Amino acid sequence: MEENVIVIEGLSKNYKRWFSSKGTKALDNLTISVPRGSVFGFLGPNGAGKTTTIKILMDLIKPTTGSAFVLGKPSYDVDVKKRIGFLPDSPAFSRQLTAREFLNICAKLLRIPSEQRNETVEEALHTVKMAEHAREKLGSFSRGMLQRIGVAQAILNKPELLILDEPLLGLDPYGRQEFKQIIIDQQKKGTSVFFSSHILSDVEEICDRIAILKKGHLLCTGELDKLLAASGINVVITPGEDKVFKELMTDAEGSVKNPDGGWTLSFPHNNPELLKKIEDMKKESPDALAISASREKLEDFFFRTVENANV
Amino acid sequence: MNEIITIASGTWKNVLRMKVVYFLILCALVLVASAINYDVLSMGLQKELMIDVSLVLNSIAAMLVVISLTFEIPKELREGVASTLLSKPLGRFQYLIGKMFGCIVTGAVICALIAVGSFFIFNMSFGERIGVTMFQTHLLVILALIPMSALGVLFAVLLPEVIAPIITVVVVWFAFSTKFLAGIPVLYGGILPDLDLFNFRANAVYQVQIPWMYVLLVTLWGICYAAFALSLASIVFERKDIK
Amino acid sequence: MKRTPIYVIILVVACVASTILAMKLNTMQHSFCPEKKDLSGSPIAGFHKFASDVKWMRLVNYLGSLNTVDESNVKQVAERLEELMKLDPNLEKIYKDGALIMSIADPDKTIEFLTTACNNQYLKNNWQIPFYAGYVMMHNAKPANYEKAAEFFEMSMKRSGSDTGASYVVSSFFRAKAKDMVQKDKSLKGDEKLALLKVLYGEWENNQKMGAEGSYRNDGANTQNLNDRLIKALKDVKVASEDYKPTSDGKKYADMVISKVFDKAHICSNCTAPYDAGEKYCSSCGTSLPVWGLCKNQACKKPLKNGNAPFCIHCGAKQK
């Protein structure tokens, strides 16, 4: 069994316009891999190339250069899609079909045996809490309900890999909560999840790996804990050590007064001189301060990474 | 094959559930029935007129179904319905052929309803049995859906959403007038279709029977032409980015 | 797997197969739908028949708005009919109702339309159209072309077959032939009655030569019909009327015809009235007649039943 469910190597996509030699570069030499069993958050501002990447993975868009492998097969392999669940960014389905009929069509396309089909469809409807709307036409559904049906069709085949493009969009807080639970449940069942989202708090909550893209360039990728841990340090100053406090205060990114009267100062990790200065002070007076790694919020990490990126 | 039938069934269910379709069929039958009132104005040709009107309306219905296909495919591509379907183990060629089959079945059902309604009205109006030729000509209208749908698929894939239906209508319209190219092999019947091969409305009126061998061969031509148009569409569609 | 090469192969094979089939179908189509090649080339999506229906109704409407079809509007009527013919050459009404309406104002155009209709494959069994063409040619065309008219009538007769309802077509045919003969043979001095007799006799001779086959007029009914016509023609030539005075040439020719055609028919050589067995004088004109149909028994010599009974009803003698 492959170690990575998704392997993207040097992927570029240039959208060419008719009558124009220039194009829009949506992806530029993207290389990432998604380990099996992980929940992978694919992040980036609008126009970063998230949807393009996902659609290349689903063979909906052809890459200009590079290659993408899903579950060990090239992304254009039709049969590999039997093992994948996919939710597009704005799911739209045939308006005249009922939810059950649509899921039945999807089940047929997923080659689920006819004797299991009804049961599978019902199970998916229950999972997304849409069983009571099964006979209603999709044309009458709200955005959130469509999103749920989208999720239902994505999990119909009990996929090895779920690829979700902005799955939390359009869901109310309850829906989001339920959806996050579905992802967690899927992961528990052994499904790898690759999804893009703008809702960073949710990503932080459920993802164990992330990648951040900006204008088609990969800014960073890796385990979430490592990325956020490496984002800076906290220095706790013992009460009464005002001299140390004053000396470090000017360079600190943030300061919080502790209940015991001491201070907690936070510093970025990308200033080696400052880090050396702190370490020197620690050596001089080990009791005056304690150093610990700070876990940055994903939102802060995201903005810092995106804004500092030179692309 | 199952995938093709699945896509086709989705297509025909989608269209045949629209109430407006049945309203239009009813309108068509009212128009057919109204031909009986033209006895004076046509100097006794009302029977011939009724036969012809039923065939004309059937042909227009077939054309409308094909046009609806040229709207539906780009719409599905734009709205993401196609993305959802193509994310399943379904080849793009299968998707296109499924759409074409769906269109043919939809058209066949609508045309058959109009034909049966027309036969009933004709029988009630003139007390005459339905001739073989009348049946054959309506059958040929339905069979014409094969190359027409393939053309619809081709243009829906090849052209932007706004232009595709217009170009399809224009091509289908002119495809009835390509006889003058009959001396040029490959171009005639191969690249440019001759839909007039399905057109025997006058035969229905004059009760000139069409050989069954011809019906068989023209069906075969329709299938061959559809294969040509679909493979061309597939070459384009395989390279197309689905937004 | 990249499938493009497969699609290219399908595309080429399908294209070649389609073009071969289309060409074959095109030829087949012309065989059972010959009018297709003459249809208007205007791109109307094959709605030629429907367009013709609409145009026909518009023509009827237009004709209704005219008091008469004369020189002032015949061109427009002809144009409309021509348009109709290009859309639906099989529409009988174009010729039977449409073209005839302009037969007085423009007989030549009418004949042109009717000639086209005569050559139409679908209307090949229609005997009325050539009859109308002949009629217009004989009565309306200026100058009348009787030879051509006769050809049309002959076409009509061949199409009508033994349709007894169309006996006036045969009359018209002989009349046209007679008029043609008068026009060409100055020695007839305009004697149409004699010309008709000559035509009919010529026809009778032809029939004799051709035997019982190969002629539309050779079936029993028409032979009888031809005899009746000859008798009437003989009478017309021999008997004076208000507008006709028998000529010696005419009488001579009539006698010759009677001797050739009716030597066994027992008709009065003077008035052409038939007479029965045993009659000595004509009941119509009193002319002395050669007696026939008597019993061969010299003692009896009474008329036999129908003139040819095998036994005499008076003496019972067997006749040879």
What is the compact description of this entry?
Chain A has ten helices and 14 strands.
State the major sheet of chain B: none
Fraction in helix of chain C: 55-70%
Secondary structure tally, helices of chain C: 11
Oligomer: heterotrimer
- Rounded to the nearest angstrom, the radius of gyration of chain C is 30 Å
Quickly give the structural class of chain C: mainly alpha
**Beta-strand content of chain C:** under 5%
Low confidence ranges of chain B: none
Mean pLDDT across residues of chain B: 90
**What is the arithmetic mean of pLDDT of chain C?**
85
**Chain pair forming the biggest interface:** B-C, 59 and 47 residues
**Structure annotation, total helices of chain B:** 10
Give me the strand/helix succession of chain C.
Answer: HHHHHHHHHHH
Head-to-tail CA distance between termini of chain C: 104 Å
Segments of chain C where pLDDT lies below 50 for 5+ residues? Answer: 212-216
Global outline of chain C: elongated
Strand content of chain B: under 5%
What's the Cα radius of gyration of chain B?
A: 19 Å
What is the number of independent domains of chain B? 1
| Helix-strand makeup class of chain B | mainly alpha
Number of strands of chain C: 0
Spell out the blueprint of helices and strands:
The complex is a heterotrimer of chains A (311), B (243) and C (320).
Chain A: E1 4-16, E2 23-35, E3 39-43, H1 50-57, E4 65-70, E5 73-74, E6 84-87, H2 99-109, H3 114-127, H4 143-155, E7 161-165, H5 173-188, E8 192-196, H6 200-206, E9 209-214, E10 217-223, H7 224-229, E11 232-237, H8 242-249, E12 254-257, E13 263-268, H9 272-284, E14 289-293, H10 298-308
Parallel strand pairs in A: 3-8, 3-9, 6-7, 7-8
Antiparallel strand pairs in A: 1-2, 1-4, 4-5, 9-10, 11-13, 11-14, 12-13
Helix pairs in contact in A: 2-3, 3-4
Chain B: H1 2-16, H2 19-34, H3 46-79, H4 81-86, H5 92-126, H6 132-143, H7 145-158, H8 163-174, H9 201-206, H10 212-239
Helix pairs in contact in B: 1-5, 2-3, 2-5, 3-5, 3-6, 3-7, 3-8, 5-6, 5-7, 5-10, 7-8, 7-10
Chain C: H1 4-32, H2 48-65, H3 74-87, H4 92-98, H5 107-119, H6 128-139, H7 146-160, H8 167-184, H9 192-210, H10 220-238, H11 248-261
Helix pairs in contact in C: 2-3, 5-6, 6-7, 6-8, 7-8, 8-9, 9-10, 9-11, 10-11
